[in-house]
Amino acid sequence: MAGARGLLAAAALLGFLQASSSFEVKDSSGKVCIIADLTVAFSVEYKSNGQKEFAHFFLPQNATVESQSSCGNGNKSHPILVLGFGAGHSLSLNFSEHADNYQVEELVFHYNLSDATLFHNSTAGEVKKVSHKTTIQAHMGTKYRCISAEHVNMKSVNITFSNVTLEAYLTNGTFSTNKTECAEDMVSTTARVPTTPKQTTSQVPTTSPAPTASPPNPAVGKYNVTGPNGTCVLAYMGLQLNITYQKKDEKMGLDLLNFIPQNTTSSGRCDNTSAFLNLTFEKTRVIFHFVLNASTEKYFLQGVNVSTTLPSEAKEPKFEAWNNSMSELRATVGNSYKCSAEENLQVTDKALVNVFNVQIQVFRIDGDKFGAVEECQLDENNMLIPIIVGAALAGLVLIVLIAYLIGRKRSHAGYQTI
């Protein structure tokens, strides 16, 4: 699910393959007050010779707990974990407590754009800072546990946490036996045979999610946008909206909506360097924003905006989310982008737009026909698997054949002509 499924989705999958790292903060007496075992993936947008580039990297296992880390001092200061790595980069988790809970109140990331190992040919050379509130919280006396990927979007920086176990305000110097699970791990869904165009599935989460059936893939629709010079957006795709929401009873639910092509209206607009595709189905709207990089002759999906009405059980029925720092569905102008595999476009930590069997072309389109195809990485990888398996089987057959011929030759060598 990596590669073409979006920067954040790719980081999430790779995060599960990356070994997690463990860090501790101790007070002056050597007592441990914070333990964090986690995998962190970064995606940072920066300028290289005036062009937009992205750097993707992980929090290294040799990151160090910096001297700014602290166990806090009552009401005067709160616990903080500061992890330093590379040439001047640091990630800070600032904790606070409220009633019976503790939380990572703020996440702060400093990154040094002069570090050429991460930011190749960076135009800027300064240290930048971004920060954001998080949803990481747990009951006092329990460890926070989240296997699922959690995404934090901060302007030009996207951070993905996975395989997280952490605890602050420790009393015995080690993780507590009891744990607080994140909402993402607790959400479970049940796929149903749709009786109405909108497929809404929700279920009370359990501490151990039960195995669930996969919902059906959406039907593929054809959508286009016409500009001053003819068709400027041509798209074939199945579209599915995936939203995690909080219910009125404070539990979590999952809303899955498959767009039905014949009931979906499309509109949009475009100019020489920007194009919008608006798709509306019932009370749900998804807007795709494509841009053209004239210097590289590449177009890509830069932004997605989602608005919908959630089921009546939702605490906040009206839902809207957007992400304007993406770099997906990329292809050369004049060519079409194609991907048979499912791709997940990460809008926020609560919203995904899933596209199936997508083929899309933006800007330079000859009539209503797609240009040369540029396959996504997922499809290329899927094609490699049978090739590798076939080559391995062919090699095995060849080895067996050679062994048979050698054995046969040796057996004939034992007889003499009379």
Walk me through this protein's architecture:
- With 418 residues, the chain is mainly beta.
- It has two domains: 3-186, Porin (Beta Barrel); 220-377, Porin, CATH 2.40.160.
- It is built from three helices and 26 strands.
- It has helices spanning 7-17, 183-186, 377-412; strands at residues 21-26, 32-48, 51-58, 64-65, 80-85, 89-98, 101-112, 127-132, 137-139, 143-146, 150-154, 157-168, 179-181, 220-227, 230-246, 252-258, 264-270, 274-281, 284-293, 298-309, 318-323, 328-332, 336-339, 343-346, 351-362, 373-375.
- The strands form four sheets. Strands 1, 2, 3, 10, 11, 12 and 13 form a seven-stranded mixed sheet that branches.
- A hairpin with a 4-residue loop joins β19 and β20.
- It is globular, with a radius of gyration of 26 Å.
- The model is unreliable at 1-19 and 188-213 (pLDDT under 50).
Record the SSE blueprint.
Elements: H1 7-17, E1 21-26, E2 32-48, E3 51-58, E4 64-65, E5 80-85, E6 89-98, E7 101-112, E8 127-132, E9 137-139, E10 143-146, E11 150-154, E12 157-168, E13 179-181, H2 183-186, E14 220-227, E15 230-246, E16 252-258, E17 264-270, E18 274-281, E19 284-293, E20 298-309, E21 318-323, E22 328-332, E23 336-339, E24 343-346, E25 351-362, E26 373-375, H3 377-412
Parallel strand pairs: 10-13, 23-26
Antiparallel strand pairs: 1-2, 2-3, 2-12, 4-5, 5-6, 6-7, 7-8, 7-9, 10-12, 11-12, 14-15, 15-16, 15-25, 17-18, 18-19, 19-20, 20-21, 20-22, 23-25, 24-25
Any key phrases for this structure?
seven-stranded mixed sheet, 12% helix, 2 domains, 26 strands, Porin, mainly beta, 418 residues, 47% strand
